[in-house]
């Protein structure tokens, strides 16, 4: 199966940029004289990354990622949301807004860990409702950055608390008056998240609304996750970003 080498190059570069940024955040020395020896933290070999991209793109067990044979983008078509109502700021002080990614439930059906996105939403909403709060779902079409997604959701919520969920599953709880790079809780390792994790996220978001003392959702950390899922995460992020329509901003999302 012939795959666009331009798309392979694009995804490979995205993977390397992401890993380089993460290593820099971790305070690692990436200069030639650096003494970092842990292979899990080294920058990936470009040829190896391209090989993984080709395997994923060829559909080798990755039925939740579209075939990219001969394409220059992951999805040939872009979904038109122009007929959807624009999301308005809520007035209910019990309202928690869940902002989902541009490819959510359309181009991408499951998280990077394989959880159906309908199940993700069902659990987050259930967690919010169990605490007596009211969930509302919107689709964010002007950014694919989960921190900004969560903040925009919080600004729309009557309570000022919002949850951002990328289609690959990465999630953030935010508050309307926080800076974009700040948050109440961050869940970066989507491959390790379970339906119960998402339910707990919903419960915690509701507790922030009520002003209760909140115990952060326990996070599981596995150093093998990043190198194992880096390429798939980049593919899913590119697929999400392709679906952005900044001119539409944020829409009400009722296709759940």
- What sequence of helices (H) and strands (E) makes up the elements? HHEHEHEEEHHE
Q: For the largest sheet, list the strands in their spatial order.
A: 5-4-3-1-2-6
Question: What is the name of the CATH topology of the largest domain?
Answer: Rossmann fold
Mean pLDDT equals 83
- The Rg value, from CA coordinates, equals 19 Å
Distance between the termini: 34 Å
Word description of this protein:
With about 260 residues, the protein is of the alpha/beta class. About 35% of the residues lie in helices and about 10% in strands. The chain has 2 domains: about 5-70, no CATH class; about 85-255, 3-Layer(aba) Sandwich (Rossmann fold). It has helices at about 5-25, 45-55, 115-130, 145-155, 195-210, 225-240, and strands spanning about 95-100, 135-140, 160-165, 170-175, 185, 250. It has a 6-stranded mixed sheet with strand order 5-4-3-1-2-6, sandwiched between helices. It is globular, with a radius of gyration of 19 Å. It starts with a helix and ends with a strand.
Short description:
With 256 residues, the chain is an alpha/beta fold. It has helices at 5-25, 46-57, 117-130, 146-156, 195-210, 225-242; strands at 95-100, 134-140, 161-165, 171-175, 185-187, 250-252. It is globular and about 50 Å long.
């Amino acid at each position: 199966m012939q795959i666009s080498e331009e798309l392979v190059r694009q995804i490979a570069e995205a993977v390397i940029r992401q890993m380089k940024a993460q290593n820099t955040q971790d305070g690692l020395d990436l200069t030639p004289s650096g003494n970092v020896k842990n292979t899990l933290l080294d920058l990936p070999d470009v040829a190896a990354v391209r090989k993984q991209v080709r395997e994923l793109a060829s559909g080798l067990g990755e039925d939740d990622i579209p075939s990219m044979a001969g394409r220059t983008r992951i999805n040939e078509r872009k979904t038109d949301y122009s007929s959807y109502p624009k999301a308005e700021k809520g007035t209910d002080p019990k309202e928690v807004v869940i902002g989902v990614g541009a490819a959510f439930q359309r181009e991408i059906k499951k998280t990077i860990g394989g959880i159906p996105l309908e199940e993700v939403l069902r659990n987050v909403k259930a967690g919010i409702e169990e605490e007596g709060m009211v969930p509302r779902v919107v689709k964010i079409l002007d950014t694919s950055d989960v921190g900004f997604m969560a903040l925009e959701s919080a600004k729309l919520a009557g309570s000022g608390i919002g949850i951002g969920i990328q289609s690959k599953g990465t999630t953030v709880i935010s508050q309307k008056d926080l800076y974009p790079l700040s948050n109440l809780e961050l869940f970066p390792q989507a491959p390790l998240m379970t339906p119960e994790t998402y339910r707990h996220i919903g419960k915690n978001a509701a507790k922030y609304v009520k002003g209760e003392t909140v115990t952060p959702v326990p996070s599981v950390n596995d150093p093998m996750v990043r190198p194992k899922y880096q390429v798939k995460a980049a593919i899913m992020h590119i697929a999400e970003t392709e679906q952005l329509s900044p001119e539409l901003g944020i829409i009400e999302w009722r296709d759940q």
